[in-house]
Design goal:
four-stranded antiparallel beta sheet; about 15% strand; alpha+beta
Length: about 650
């Protein structure tokens, strides 16, 4: 509840800050060289159009890369993926067109203002670092040139922030909806269950060599040996850079130029008693709550203890602490609340104060006037800031020099390592779907390594470490011989037959347990399977020995003890169960969770509403002939893509 009535100004900054991460993920692939056998001919082909604006094969390639689509997949899978990628790009273009129609597309000044707010390290002391440093940062962090980076950023702001807000601003969540979600989240159940594991049947499975060969022939297309590449990896680590010296005069100059940054606003320590009026219409009047607040205020004026009154009457989560809000700065709470706080004298109690979340009675404990922190107090902070800025600029410069040397050296990355005294590792051959630990989790870098020609370096920067990779050898895709995958085929056959046997056993247990007078315990004992009883769990919990409770569906909470459910598959195992007991949700704690639920549900409803809006707009554009998809070109594109990289 505490977060309910803190100012939402900071939250807006956090939401906007998240855009950069999303933009980075979606853009990081866009300048990777084409995957097709002849990019010059293929990547400029128009596969679709929205209002005449082309969606090229290169954009589809880039989008498929973010989806993790490999050229090693069968043609039909690639065709489906490329069609889906084109559909998503068409959606994006339609939304951008709508954003432009509503005048939501930001201009250069608005993009610059957003960057200054969200990327302050590019504006030390409020001054732009310059085009050279900015260009290096964007190229190293996002693999983009400046025009494309700013173009993509503007598009994301137009659609993901402005258009979505315009379309979904009227979406509300009602109190009955909140209560329903709360009950579903917090009701508990226990079950009696039997788990039948496929692993218990593995020893029963016998597979002949002939059956293995038949399975291999039937799945031959799935057992190809994918392309493998040998990569030399060079690491540029921030920790290897010397700690820069910063003269005292520079620290004092920076402090003088940024004194406002180190000015603390006035503070106060106060307690409050909250009578919430939060409904689907925040800020609405509630005569009953106001009357309660006024009655409690009269008791306090007559000598009642404020902290005791807070414990008894406050709807805030800090009621047990007497309503203590601790020390806070001006600007953290709604204006009417803060105006009342700072107009009080220490130990004084306010009148009833109305804010968007309810009625408050406030007691002030102390006030701390605004002040500018002196130089000596912030010296270490200044030193850390200037050192970090210097290290970042030094890293950009070093990485530029190393990258240039790597491009000149080709596959001889060891020479570059010796030149700059940097570590070079040679990674054993690997496929794109089974990368070594050094590359795991960096899909964009992996894609670049498998797209680039040998000797052409790829670069990735994250967590203060820049990786420069060069492919030194390529083992092309080829069909697997039977002996190479014999063990893999055997494992697949044995696993599937074990699963089939486990499912058959679980099905027989379920059928017999449903007969009149039967019980899971007795039926299980006949099959050598022990029935167990679970502890109480919620729908979001992990049930011991089973897994996520959501796998079981809503049946555990039905309250029907004679209901036998299953078999439900859990990985390679199967569960048959019946409900035992059910506990209703404790509605006494609803107020504590209400706002978190409201935010989650509101986000969910807004996402759903925006999805409906998007689908309706795309359908309208298609009906009006404003969308074109060239199906013949898409098939040709998929064929080229599936031929693999050359």
């Amino acid at each position: 509840m505490f977060n309910l009535f803190r100012s939402r100004k900071r939250a807006v900054r956090y939401v906007l800050g998240g855009i950069l991460t999303l933009v980075a993920f979606s853009m990081v692939i866009t300048l990777i060289p084409g995957l097709l056998s002849n990019p010059a001919e293929a990547t400029d082909v128009t596969l679709g159009e929205v209002d005449g604006r082309p969606i090229t094969a290169q954009r589809v390639v880039s989008h498929m890369a973010t989806m993790g689509v490999s050229s090693d997949l069968p043609f039909n899978s690639i065709l489906l993926s490329s069609t889906n990628a084109l559909d998503e790009l068409v959606e994006r273009e339609v939304l951008l067109t709508e954003a432009e129609r509503f005048g939501l597309y930001p201009d250069e000044q608005e993009v610059a203002e957003w960057m200054q707010l969200q990327m302050p390290f590019l504006f030390p002391e409020g001054v732009f670092v310059g085009a050279a440093v900015y260009t290096r940062y964007v190229r190293q962090s996002f693999k983009l040139g400046i025009p494309e980076f700013e173009h993509q950023l503007a598009r994301s702001l137009a659609v993901d922030t402005r258009l979505k807000r315009l379309v979904t601003s009227d979406i509300l969540v009602t109190t009955p909806e909140l209560e329903e979600v709360y009950r579903a989240r917090n009701e508990q159940a226990s079950i009696e269950y039997i788990k039948v594991s496929a692993a218990d049947f593995t020893r029963q499975v016998r597979v002949t060599d002939e059956e293995l060969r038949d399975a291999y022939e039937g799945e031959k297309a799935q057992h190809g040996i994918p392309e493998r590449r040998t990569v030399k990896l060079l690491l540029v680590d921030d920790s290897g850079l010397p700690v820069p010296e910063v003269p005292e005069s520079r620290l004092r100059q920076y402090y003088a130029q940024n004194r406002a940054t180190y000015r603390d606003s006035r503070k106060a320590r106060a307690s409050h008693i909250l009578f919430t009026t939060l409904t689907e219409s925040p800020g609405g009047e509630s005569p009953d709550q106001k009357a309660k607040a006024e009655d409690v205020l009269r008791k306090i004026r007559d000598g009642a203890d404020f902290a005791l009154m807070a414990k008894e009457h406050s709807d805030d989560t800090n009621a047990a602490d007497g309503g203590d809000l601790g020390l806070f700065s001006a600007g953290e709470y709604p204006a009417p609340f803060e105006q009342a706080v700072f107009n009080l004298e220490p130990d004084a109690v306010s009148d009833v104060v109305k804010t968007e979340v309810g009625y408050h009675i406030i007691k002030l404990h102390e006030k701390v006037p605004a002040r500018t922190r002196p130089f000596d107090e912030v010296r270490d902070e200044l030193l850390a800031t200037l050192r970090q800025e210097t290290i970042q600029r030094d890293r950009f410069a070093l990485t530029d020099r190393v990258s240039a040397a790597a491009r000149e050296a080709g596959t001889d990355l060891e020479e570059v390592g010796r030149q700059f005294d940097l570590e070079v590792r040679t990674l054993p051959p690997f496929s794109i779907n089974e990368p070594p630990a050094e590359l795991s989790g960096d899909q964009a870098f992996l894609n670049a390594l498998f797209d680039n020609e040998p000797g052409n370096p790829a670069l990735s920067t994250a967590g203060g470490i820049t990786k420069i990779g060069v492919v030194s050898a390529v083992d092309p895709t080829r069909p697997a011989e039977f002996e190479e995958v014999r063990d893999k085929v055997r494992e697949s056959v044995v696993t599937q037959r074990s699963i089939d046997l486990a499912q058959q056993r679980a099905q027989r247990i379920a059928e017999e347990a449903q007969e009149p007078g039967a019980s899971l315990r007795r039926v299980g004992s006949r099959f050598g399977s022990r029935a167990q009883s679970s502890e109480f769990f919620k729908s979001s919990d992990i049930v011991e020995n089973i897994g996520r409770a959501s796998i079981l569906g809503p049946d555990p909470f039905s309250g029907e003890p004679d209901l036998v459910v299953g078999p439900r598959r859990v990985g390679n195992d199967f569960v048959v169960f019946r409900p035992l007991e059910r506990k209703e949700a404790d509605m006494g704690r609803f107020a504590n969770e209400r706002e978190d639920i409201r935010k989650t549900q509101l986000d969910t409803k807004r996402e759903a509403a925006f999805r409906v809006y998007t689908e309706a707009k795309v359908a309208a554009y298609e009906a009006a002939g404003r969308v074109r998809k060239h199906q013949d070109r898409i098939r040709d594109f998929a064929r080229l893509y599936s031929r693999g990289r050359t």
